[in-house]
Amino acid sequence: MDRKESYLSVIGAHYVPDIVLDFLPRIFEAYKIRDYKSKNFQVSACENTLSTAGLLLSVASIESYANRIFRFEEKRGPVPEKISEIFWSKNNNFPKEDFERLLCEVYILRDVIVHNHIYDISTAVDRESWEIKHLDETLVIGKGEKDKKFKECVDCAAKKTKLLKLHVQPLKIGFEDLFTVLFVFDTFVRLSQSMLSDSHVPFRLYCKIGKTTESSLSRLLASYYRQITNEEYLKALESLLTELRGKYAHFLVSPYDDAFINNICPRPNCGKIGFHTILRGNTCAACGLSIGRPLAQNA
Ligand SMILES: [Zn+2]
Q1: Within a 10 A sphere around the Cβ of 233, how many other Cβ atoms?
Q2: How far is the CA of 170 from the centre of ligand 1 (A)?
Q3: Residue 295, domain member (yes or no)
């Protein structure tokens, strides 16, 4: 008798672990030499190109997993709305409007890149210091204030989404936007596994770092987090992560509770973000608390 097997034709499962995380070090190298304080209308071509590609692949991966969830749950529709509704159907305390909004902002960024919104940019540069003294960026092709969803989610004057603070002027999209979307991706994966099942979203990470293999996206993101020096971004990130932890952490169950939003120092009154890392093991950067995971070798 023939052996029968069935598969779901999902292709986006490996985009983040095998491609995006593979070129993340190159993006970070370009990012960390940036002058964060100077006024500019673009990040470097290397940072921008790889970050926008990484963002598209990360959203394509969410889309793939969402379709797998739709197949299991026999539902269909726009991903931000339907996924939030499915989570809510499993637990009516789940803040579905908030999560829909979170995914909506990620999808807006996807649209900005994939449809290449065009801005007309003009600058006035100081002749001696070469600093940009005046900058004007006007959207000429793409969705703007006239689009209801865009207006709801985007601060059009700041050219950033309202909650996640993602840049919507395409040339400014860089490491910080990708990093934010990666921990939203991580939150989506862990919520799906906790509230539905591991089969719904069978995300696997297998990252070779020196002689060590890393399997946790949370620890990998924390290792980057600990090297970020842009104070403005760190401050915004801290308040965003605190907000997301307050809303979603109690829906994460073991063994899927090791999400980046939960990756904080366990010492009472500390709570510093990025406690479990690859490079430094489990040691707090603020209070020095250390808990026994051996450090990665040759990392
Ligand atoms: Zn601490």
Answers
A1: 17
A2: 37
A3: no
Distance 275 CA to ligand 1 centre (A): 8
Question: From ligand 1's centre to the CA of 154, what distance in Å?
Answer: 35
Q: Is residue 270 part of a domain?
A: no
283 located within any domain: no
Determine the distance separating the centroid of ligand 1 and the alpha carbon of 267, expressed in angstroms: 6
Q: Which domain holds residue 122?
A: 12-262
Give the distance (Å) from ligand 1 centre to CA of residue 59: 33
Model confidence over 246-255: pLDDT tens digits? Answer: 999 999 999 9
Residue 264 C-alpha to ligand 1 middle, in angstroms? 8
Distance 222 CA to ligand 1 centre (A): 14
What is the C-alpha separation between 51 and 258, in angstroms, rounded? 25
CA–centroid distance, 272 to ligand 1, in Å, is: 5
Structural domains of the chain, count: 1
Render pLDDT for 282-297 as a digit per residue (tens, 0 to 9). 889 899 999 875 554 4
Q: How far is the CA of 282 from the centre of ligand 1 (A)?
A: 10
Joined together, the tokens standing for residue 289 give 């608390």
DSSP string, 240-299: HHHHHHHHHGGG--TTS---GGG-B--STTT--B--B-STT-BB-TTT--B-SPPPPTT-
The predicted model scores a pTM of 0.93
Residue 7 lies in a domain: no
103-161 tens-digit pLDDT? 999 999 999 999 988 888 888 888 887 888 888 888 888 887 778 889 999 999 999 99
Q: Are 191 and 248 in contact (CB under 8 A)?
A: yes
